[in-house]
Amino acid sequence: MNSPNGSVSPHAPHGNTVAKVRAGLARRRAAETRFRFYGLASLVVGLAFLAIMFSSIIGKAYSAFQQTYIGLDVQFDERLLAPEGKRDAETLAAADYGGLLKQSLELLFPDVKDRQQKRALNKLVSSGAGNDLRRLLLAKPDLMGKTVRVWLPADDDVDMFAKGQIDRHDSEGDRRLKDYQLAWLDKLQAEGRVEKRFNSLFFKAGDSREPELAGIRGAVAGSFLTLMVTLVLSLPIGFAAAVYLEEFAPRSRWTDIIEVNINNLAAVPSIVFGLLGLAVFINFFGLPRSSPLVGGLVLTLMTLPVIIIAGRSALKAVPPSIREAALGVGASHMQTVFHHVFPLAIPGMLTGAIIGMARALGESAPLLMIGMVAFIVDIPRSVMAPATVLPVQIYLWADSPERGFVERTSAAILVLLAFLIVMNGLAVYLRKRYEKRW
């Protein structure tokens, strides 16, 4: 560049360079600002969706922890329950308790004469209320001949109405309760015979076709038995495989192939393991379908890659100086591994195992393939008994048309999330509590 007097300015190139550097710095700062903004916006959007999801689940689930009960003055009429005068357990178990309920409701509403209205009147109380009366009389045989007030679960439509899920101002054709049924409920309410109580059946009962009687105890028991089988099998096999591959296996083409396949198996869709379990454990070995044993075997195959990979990472994290020091004082290779390296790697290996168990707890696809989608009412007592698990129970309820199952589906999701949070929290605690900083 020429100066005003015609000479070349020695500072011109330097000035251009400074301007270019400043422009570049401005662009980099703007890019960094945009990147931080995009990251913060992504975090906010993710948290917003998470908040919406949890608020939706909780909004639908909280009412499931309450159940509407109707108080009836039940007369345990010996002529109806034991017409031949026998009061043994077999006779009382086979008695007509549905007749007792009809008799109690007819005494409260003597004006109901129409057959259709009588059926609608009897439907105010759950169809399983007779079983409650049976259990009560078998537990207290001295109630025979007495009249006592018994609180029985209401039908799911009555329960939904009491919880505000059914609007009485809708036209009669748009709701499942008739006008005369609402009038009967108003009378029961005025007499103090309708109450909402803690829904203990949700935690104590198994599955049922009736929403008001359905519970998660059977699914929780099935999940527990399935996870116990998975834990007993996957933990020793996964730890042993991790120790062998990391500490003892010679480096060769075969070990490389094994390591690649283990890493690939960790990414295989879970339903593939269900197909494998169906083909091998059920069709080939003939193990019972929908049993926790088969479910545990399938989940073991699914979680083993995760446990092995986490175990090897924990072993690699132990400093080489530990091995060198043990070998330097005369310990053998096996003594070095099992007396020094393995104990220091256990916290990290357990963390990986707990995360693998948490993943297994939330799986449903592989268990659907081995028949654990069956309708199971009884609580499983052994690993060979038919059972279902909590994620599959949620799937079954979500597919049910009754409105009462909607809130129970959300409540079961909350219970499953609580278990997962506890298991992941335990993994974090173990890592923080026993992790060593090298």
Could you list some keywords that capture this structure?
extended; three-stranded antiparallel beta sheet; 438 residues; mainly alpha; single chain; MetI-like fold; 18 helices
Encode the helix/strand succession as letters.
HEHHHHHEHHEHHHHHHHHHH
The level 1 CATH classification of the largest domain is Mainly Alpha
CATH architecture of the largest domain: Orthogonal Bundle
Number of strands: 3
Mean pLDDT, to the nearest integer, reads 88
Helix share, percent? 55-70%
Structural class by SSE content? mainly alpha
Instruction: Output the number of helix runs.
Output: 18
Strand-residue proportion: 5-15%
Can you tell me the CATH topology of the largest domain? MetI-like fold
Shape: extended
Query: The biggest beta sheet, please?
Result: 3 strands, antiparallel
Low-confidence stretches: none
Count of individual domains: 3
So, the CATH homologous superfamily of the largest domain?
MetI-like
**Separation of the first and last Cα atoms:** 60 Å
| Order of strands in the sheet with most strands | 2-1-3
Measured on Cα atoms, how large is the radius of gyration? Answer: 33 Å
